[in-house]
């Protein structure tokens, strides 16, 4: 058969198929309506013009970020200059994210009765850029196997010193390089702190392990401390293989941590994030509690997260957390925020039974072998740290 006849025959078959499909759709529509079914209404507007449903301030801010970072929508907008973006995208607050965002005073109905420190967090929630007062840019030149990162407050000189003399001892430990840094913000008389900056600068010059930023160091700003550290890590310590983050009142069995990490395969290490994991948690609505979050600020359930007392993650994952944190609105509870970032990456923290961020039973607290078997225990005083550390390092202790 000539080629022209073949093409004509194929074209006729395609046309007949299209007519058949149209007839079927028409019959389906007709009989569907006769049974009382509703007509299919074609939207007159694009799907991204729909209004957001959340009434809580944090959720609305997160929906805004999700929209901005949606690759499909961004591609559509960049390829079609006529696309009209929804009006709520214009409600972004001041152009400078570090200017106070006074929208919160009208959009959060109970703003005026929230704790002052909570109000301060909300006003400056969008700011992630603060000058460094004390830096250690060359701290990780030797690319440490384990970076110990300790959240501390300026007046906690005794805690930091106890950590330096025990589990945070930097150098070569168990045939691996260990580096320690302490994270600090600024304290002031507004929060009933004396002016200790000169003493802090002396401590920094002496030990060269302090990182300090010029922001108000409060409980609600612990998340800010987290993202500022991740930024510092990405610039000055990206070669660190593992990171342990903990409070300055935990005791860490550094030898046990290193032995555990040395046994990991490359696959196991890639997405490593272990700690004392909390599941099925929701915001506390009791105003008397430290972790109180009103419905006007956040609605929904928390993702799985590791208790902020201490956890271990790979250096590679820490870099990914920094990048993804730009897509997650700051939240006033730092360990929950880290769980949100992990969820955004499609990951969940792994529970490890040797992390005890809620402490151990009284009868075990003076048992050397119990402490030798655990990785992290919260909380401990400086005196307790100094007592426990010899139990960890003395080889003559028999725990068989």
Automatic annotation (TrEMBL):
Pathway: Protein modification; protein glycosylation
Catalytic reactions on record: a beta-D-galactosyl-(1->4)-N-acetyl-beta-D-glucosaminyl derivative + UDP-N-acetyl-alpha-D-glucosamine = an N-acetyl-beta-D-glucosaminyl-(1->3)-beta-D-galactosyl-(1->4)-N-acetyl-beta-D-glucosaminyl derivative + UDP + H(+)
Transmembrane segments: 12-31
Database matches in InterPro entries: Glyco_trans_31
CC cofactor: Mn(2+)
Matching Pfam families: Galactosyl_T
Keywords in alphabetical order: Glycoprotein, Glycosyltransferase, Golgi apparatus, Manganese, Membrane, Signal-anchor, Transferase, Transmembrane, Transmembrane helix
Keyword Transmembrane carried by entry: yes
One GO term of the biological process aspect: protein O-linked glycosylation
Gene Ontology molecular functions: N-acetyllactosaminide beta-1,3-N-acetylglucosaminyltransferase activity
Subcellular localization(s) per the UniProt record: Golgi apparatus membrane
Subunit comment: Interacts with B3GNT8; this interaction greatly increases B3GNT2 catalytic activity, independently of B3GNT8 enzymatic activity.
Protein name: Hexosyltransferase
Source species of the chain: Kryptolebias marmoratus (Mangrove killifish)
Native organism taxonomy: Eukaryota, Metazoa, Chordata, Craniata, Vertebrata
């Amino acid at each position: 058969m000539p080629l022209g006849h073949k093409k004509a025959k194929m074209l006729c078959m395609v046309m007949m198929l299209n007519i058949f499909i149209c007839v079927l759709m028409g019959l389906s529509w007709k009989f569907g309506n006769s049974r009382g079914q509703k007509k299919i209404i074609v939207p007159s507007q694009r799907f991204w013009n729909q209004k957001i449903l959340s009434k809580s301030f944090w959720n609305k801010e997160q929906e805004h970020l999700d929209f901005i970072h949606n690759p499909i929508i961004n591609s559509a907008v960049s390829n079609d200059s006529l696309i009209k973006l929804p009006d709520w995208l214009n409600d972004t607050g001041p152009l400078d994210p570090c200017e106070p965002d006074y929208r919160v005073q009208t959009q959060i109905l109970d703003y005026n009765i929230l704790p002052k420190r909570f109000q301060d967090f909300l006003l400056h929630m969008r700011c992630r850029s603060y000058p460094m007062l004390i830096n250690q840019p060359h701290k990780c030149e030797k690319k440490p196997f384990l970076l110990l990162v300790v959240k501390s407050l300026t007046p906690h000189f005794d805690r930091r010193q106890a950590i330096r003399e025990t589990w945070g001892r930097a150098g070569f430990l168990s045939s691996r390089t260990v580096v320690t840094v302490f994270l600090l913000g600024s304290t002031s008389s507004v929060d009933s702190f004396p002016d200790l900056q000169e003493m802090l600068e002396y401590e920094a010059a002496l030990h060269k392990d302090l990182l300090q930023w010029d922001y108000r160091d409060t409980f609600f700003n612990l998340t800010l401390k987290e993202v500022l550290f991740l930024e510092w890590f990405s610039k000055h310590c990206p070669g660190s293989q593992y990171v342990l983050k903990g409070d300055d009142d935990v005791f860490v069995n550094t030898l046990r941590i290193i032995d555990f990490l040395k046994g990991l395969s490359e696959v196991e290490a890639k997405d490593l994030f272990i700690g004392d994991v909390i599941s099925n948690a929701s915001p506390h609505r009791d105003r008397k509690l430290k972790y109180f979050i009103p419905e006007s600020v956040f609605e929904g359930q928390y993702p799985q997260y590791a208790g902020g007392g201490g956890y271990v993650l790979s250096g590679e994952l820490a870099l990914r957390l920094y990048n993804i944190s730009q897509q997650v609105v700051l939240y006033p509870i730092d360990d929950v925020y880290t769980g949100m970032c992990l969820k955004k990456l499609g990951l969940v923290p792994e529970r490890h039974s040797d992390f005890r961020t809620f402490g151990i039973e009284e009868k075990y607290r003076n048992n050397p072998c119990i402490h030798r078997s655990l990785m992290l225990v919260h909380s401990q005083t400086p005196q307790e740290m100094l007592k426990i550390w010899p139990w960890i390092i003395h080889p003559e202790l028999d725990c068989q």
